[in-house]
Amino acid sequence: MRKLKSTVWGIVAIALFLSPELAKAQGSAKPSTNALHCLWKVQGASNVVYLLGSIHLLRGTNYPLATAIESAFSDSQIAVFETDIDKIDKMDDPEQQMAMLGKMRLPQGQTLKQNLSASAYESLSKHAAEVGIPMTYLEHFRPAFDVMEIEVGELLLLGADPEFGVDKHFMKLAREGGKRVIPLETVDFQFGLLTGFTKEEEDLLVQKSLEDIDNEKKLYNEMVLAWQTGDSAALEKMLNEIRTEAPSIFKRLVSDRTTSWIPQFEKLLQGRQNAVVIVGAGHLVGPDGAVELLKKKGFKVTQL
C-alpha cells in the first residue's frame, strides 16, 4: 500500500482533482502570448500578497518553475500554505497513520457496498484493481476517502507525485530561508471534509471522479498546461461545470473553504511584510474565488 500522505495530498488537491471533467474543460489551453502564470499580486497598504495557484502533484520534469513564480516567493517574508505540510510529512509514522485511518472508517458493521449504488461500486472496484488497491482494504472506508486513494494512485502511475508538488517545493525553500510559515487548515480538518457527505453526495462524488479516469494521462497533461499558462478563463469554466453538476459538493470542498480564508488574507494585507499564499488553483478563480472576493473588498489584484 502506498503512503497515506499521498492520499492527504489528494484531499488537499480536491479543487482541481474532484473530477476528470475539471481537466476536460481546460483541453483548449494554448501557450499564452502574454506569458501569464497562475499567479496574482494583491496590493496592500504597505505590502503585497501574492496568490499562487498550486498543483499539488507534479512531475520532476515540470521544474524549474517560471521565474515570475520563484521571484514572488523570494520577494515574500511569509509563506502561507493550504495545510500543515510538516504534519503530512509525518504520515509515514505508523501511529499517525492509524489515527488518521480510524477517522476515515465507516461505522461498525457498515461496508462500502452498502453505501454506494451498484454502478458506483462497480466503477470503483474496476479502477481500484487497475491501480493495485485491493477492495478488501477499501471496503471499510468512506467512499470519498476511497476515491481519493484511487485518483492519487492513477496520478502516481503517471509519474506525478506530491514530492514534486508546488507546495512541497516552496515549503522546503521556506524552511531553508527562515520564512514565517502559516497553514490555513489543519490536516484533521481536511480529513473531516470527507466525513460529512450524504450517501447521495458520496455516490455522485465517486461517479464523477471516476467516469473519465481512463483518459487521466491526457487530461492531467492538459490541466498542467492550463496551469502553466495562467489560463484563468479555462479554470473558471472548469469550476462552473462542477458547480452546476454537484453544487453541494463544490460548496463544501471549494467555495466555503475559499471564503473562510479571506479574513486571513485581509490580515496579511494589513501588515508590513510581503506574503505568498500557495493554495490549489481552483480556489483562486471564478466568481467565488479568492481573486474576485478580494477585488470586491476593494483590493487591487493583478495577474502576473
Question: Could you walk me through the main structural features you see in this protein, from its secondary elements to its overall organization?
Answer:
With 304 residues, the protein is an alpha/beta fold. Residues 1-33 have low confidence and may be disordered. The radius of gyration is 19 Å and the shape is globular. The longest helix is centred in the last third of the chain and has 23 residues, at 247-269. It has helices at 4-12, 14-17, 20-24, 67-74, 85-89, 94-104, 112-115, 118-130, 135-138, 143-157, 166-177, 187-192, 199-210, 216-228, 232-245, 247-269, 290-296, and strands spanning 39-43, 48-54, 78-83, 180-185, 275-280, 300-303. The chain has one domain (4-303).
Give the averaged pLDDT, no decimals. 83
Total number of beta strands: 6
Number of domains: 1
Tell me the overall shape. Answer: globular
Query: How much helix is in the residues?
Result: 40-55%
**Measured distance between first and last alpha carbons:** 41 Å
Order of SSEs, N→C? Answer: HHHEEHEHHHHHHHEHHHHHEHE
Features:
single chain, 304 residues, alpha/beta, six-stranded mixed β-sheet, 17 helices, 6 strands, 54% helix, disordered N terminus
Q: Helix and strand layout, with pairings?
A:
Elements lengths: L3 H9 L1 H4 L2 H5 L14 E5 L4 E7 L12 H8 L3 E6 L1 H5 L4 H11 L7 H4 L2 H13 L4 H4 L4 H15 L8 H12 L2 E6 L1 H6 L6 H12 L5 H13 L3 H14 L1 H23 L5 E6 L9 H7 L3 E4 L1
Parallel strand pairs: 2-5, 3-4, 3-5
Antiparallel strand pairs: 1-2, 1-6
